[in-house]
Write a structure and sequence with these properties.
Blueprint: E1 9-13, H1 25-34, E2 38-42, E3 61-65, E4 76-80, H2 95-98, H3 106-121, H4 123-144, E5 149-150, E6 162-168, H5 176-182, H6 202-207, E7 213-219, H7 226-239
Parallel strand pairs: 1-2, 2-3
Antiparallel strand pairs: 3-4, 5-6, 6-7
């Protein structure tokens, strides 16, 4: 940033959706403020799961999606700080403060707002419960799966909703995503967005390009149980 002659934009994920690592957005925001840069953060994984005070965080934009905290699919938000001005991409009507023409998705907006209200009302209790499931699964995988590794800062600054595990590659483990799927266990090899893809994860290649490991991304919610974790670990042990 210090070498830029023109004002630039910094766009970073608050939390990586594959390995879960969390970004210190306050530190990045202060750095951007120091160098007069515009800061956007993709907070899709964290809105509804972590308390964010945008009055105190030095940030210009954040984006979020309702389905990440049990709201309706197809609805999201863009927060725009009062200190920055943007131009609309879609022109026509004056909806959404002249920023996005077209009839609003009223049901989605109401659903998003209510889901966020409920998520934050129970955030402290739910986050502690979900973290306990993740911690338990890490312990169970270490106990039952020889050679298991974990991608990212899983026991540090990391999403409590995501666990990226890497298993030793064998003839059996190479088919683990397919075999878990046919056993009604929903996982992915990278992001949930690419759960049906077979091209591998660019994130995993960047941090741990080990051809002898097979990565599986597990995710957790308040609706999961310890018994489900036990069932998944038992099935993974059977399939590895």
């Amino acid at each position: 940033l210090s070498s830029q002659t023109e004002r630039c934009i910094v766009s970073l994920m608050h939390a990586n959706n594959e390995i879960g690592n969390l970004l210190d957005i306050d530190a990045v925001g202060n750095l951007c403020k120091k160098y007069n840069a515009i800061f956007h953060s993709d907070c899709v994984q964290t809105v509804g799961h972590y308390p964010l005070d945008l009055r105190k965080t030095p940030i210009h934009f954040i984006s979020a999606a309702g389905h990440k905290f049990h709201g309706p699919k197809g609805i999201g938000i863009l927060y725009v700080n009062d200190n920055v001005r943007i131009k609309p991409f879609i022109f026509g009507g004056g909806q959404e403060r002249n920023m996005r023409a077209g009839t609003e998705n009223l049901y989605g907006i109401v659903g998003f707002a209510k889901a966020l209200e409920l998520a934050m009302a129970n955030q402290e209790k739910d986050s502690a419960y979900i973290q306990s499931l993740k911690t338990y699964m890490i312990a169970q995988l270490r106990e039952h799966i020889k050679g298991v590794q974990f991608n990212g800062d899983q026991e540090g600054r990391c999403l409590y909703t995501v666990l990226s595990a890497a298993f030793p590659k064998t003839e059996r483990s190479e088919m683990i995503l397919f075999n878990l799927d046919i056993n009604n266990i929903c996982v992915s090899g990278g992001s949930a967005c690419s759960s049906g893809a077979d091209i591998g994860s660019h994130v995993i290649r960047a941090i741990n390009n080990n051809p002898n490991l097979v990565t599986v991304r597990f995710s957790f919610s308040k609706h999961n149980t310890k018994e489900e974790v036990d069932a998944v670990v038992a099935k993974v042990k059977e399939l590895i």
